[in-house]
Structure formats: structure tokens, C-alpha cells
Amino acid sequence: MNIAAGAETNNGRLADKPVILQMAELARFPYRSIGDRFEVIRYWQIDEPNAMLARDGAKVRGMIAAGSQRIDDVILDKLPNLEVIANIGVGYDRLDIEAVARRGIIATNTPDVLTEEVADLTVGLLIATVRRMPQAERHIREGRWAKSPFPNSPSLRGRSVGIVGLGRIGKAVARRLQGFEVSEICYCGRTRQADVPYRHFKDIREMAAHISVLILTLPGGPETKGLVDADVLAKLGSDGIIVNVARGAVIEKDALIAALRDGAILAAGLDVFWNEPEVPQELLALDNVVLLPHVGSASQKTRAEMIELLQDNLFAWFEGRGPLTPVAETPWQGGNGE
């Protein structure tokens, strides 16, 4: 398809208002600014979205990808003139990226601006899981402290930590952990990274047998689905702790529930789940898991910066400047708006 961007006028204003399809609501989204530049169709507010797409899909030139709606051939076939998809977040597994690339559509994400926030939360979730901080607070709230002291918790100090997904966020987590007196930091990946000092493992099972804390910061998608299975959990062992800020599907759900329930691992800290926002009742019933509602980047400051970058990608594209942060599968070759 022709992916030439919208015409530019004086002062960077657009000659017309391209139609943008926004898939889900975003907190603190600057509707007024977007509304000045684009005509926005709010997909989640439409009673019959299929009828709307059949009627208006050909008008759509841009998309804001957010929420749980899968962007695949079913949606894309109804958007024949779609040029650019601005995805909120670093991960873009909500996109069928092969289908997007095949159509010549550019996809962007929001890297870097959320790295430090997610790393902060990851380490916080790890400490809360190891030291059983939510359980200790419940001990007070439920009036049990006056009757008995809260049991001593495990410690993070002296533990060996393995990170799966040593990208921007994984490296930021590792930097923070260097100040916590852990015994070793390792990482798992297909290839050794020359610029990092940590021990490298190619195989997650080999690494799991060597460590007592497993942190998941890798991308989601078909290639990593079910990567952490019952065998990996068994090798992590009864003193093992797992923290997942990646995607729920990276861990086999039934295997994790069984490992926590049966003591095959010690504890888990989870910020992501398999069918969000639903959380399995089996997990809710367990006392050795800390659960967060996918809030890794959800500070006011960071979400505002993510939305600003998402918005800037759309502005840049339709002003003829090209995307700011295109994803690897849809590389930008230049030339839009020429």
C-alpha cells in the first residue's frame, strides 16, 4: 500500500484532519491536542464496532493501539488505508506484527521513557515478595500482631539472580540489584552481550538450576509463550522466587499455580497475567504470591511521557517527518510526505 503521509502546511499544521482509530482509553490522554490535529474514532465506545469499521474503515489512516484488542488480519483487512500504528508501551505483542509489516504499515512503540519506572517496580516487587511485605501488612490490618509476631521472612541478600530478557529494562534491573548484596547476577539469551559483566546462559533450564531468583523482563509473543514451564520451575527449586513483569503467557499458568501450591518454588511476584484483568482464583487463594494489576509503568509521570511519545510519533508521521520510534519489524526507509 502507499504509505505517504498527510500533507504539511505552514507551522507544521496539517492541511486536513487524518482519521485516527483509538482502540482503548488511555489515562490522562491529551484529547484536546489530538483532537486539534486528528479526527479520533474511539473504538471502545462504539456499540457495533464491526459495522463502524465496514462503514468508516477506509477513512482510517492512523491507529492508537492500546488495551487487549488483538490487531490482526481481522481488523487490518477492514482498514485498507492504514499507514501507521502508534502502540502504547515497549511491548507490542497486541499487534500481529507480521500482518502489519506485510501491509507496509509502520508500527511504533514507546521505549526508553518507561525503563527506569518499570525497573524500580520490578525491584520493589522482588523485595515485597522476598520479605513478604503485603502479608506483613495484612497481619497488622487483621489485628493479629497483638496475638503473635509476624514470622521471619527470607532474605534477598546472598541470593543469585537470573534475568531473562537483558534489554533496556533488564539492564536497569541488574544495575539496581548490584546495590543489594546479591551473590551473582546472570542472564539468559541467545547470544552473549559483549558490554555486560554478568554471567551468560543460553539455556533457561541451566540458568534456573544455578539461581534462586528468576526475573522475567523479556518480550511477549508466540516465541516466548510458555517459556517458563514445570521443568524450569522445578529446577529453580523450593527456595526459588520468580518475578514476572513481562507478559503472563511467558509462564505456563497451571505449572506456576501447582509449583506455588505444592512448594516446588518458594514464592512469586506477578505484575502480569494470562487473561488480564482476570486473575485465577487459585492464585488469589495463595499466601506465597504478591499480585499487582499490571502497573509496571503506571506512574503519572511515566504514563504521561509514554503518551507524549505515542502522540509525537503520530504528529511526526502526518507532518511528513517519519516515525520517531519504529519497531524493528517495520523499519522506516524514509520518504513520507515527499
From TrEMBL:
Gene Ontology CC terms: cytosol
Q: Which domain of life is it from?
A: Bacteria
Give the matching SUPFAM superfamilies.
Answer: Formate/glycerate dehydrogenase catalytic domain-like, NAD(P)-binding Rossmann-fold domains
UniProt domain D-isomer specific 2-hydroxyacid dehydrogenase catalytic: residue ranges: 41-327
InterPro entries noted in UniProt: D-isomer_2-hydroxyacid_DH, D-isomer_2_OHA_DH_cat_dom, D-isomer_DH_NAD-bd, NAD(P)-bd_dom_sf
Q: Name one Pfam family in it.
A: 2-Hacid_dh
Domain D-isomer specific 2-hydroxyacid dehydrogenase NAD-binding, by residue range, is 123-296
A GO molecular-function annotation: glyoxylate reductase (NADPH) activity
Q: Which UniProt keywords apply?
A: NAD, NADP, Oxidoreductase
What family is this? Belongs to the D-isomer specific 2-hydroxyacid dehydrogenase family.
Q: What is this protein called?
A: Lactate dehydrogenase-like 2-hydroxyacid dehydrogenase
What species was this sequence derived from?
Aminobacter aminovorans
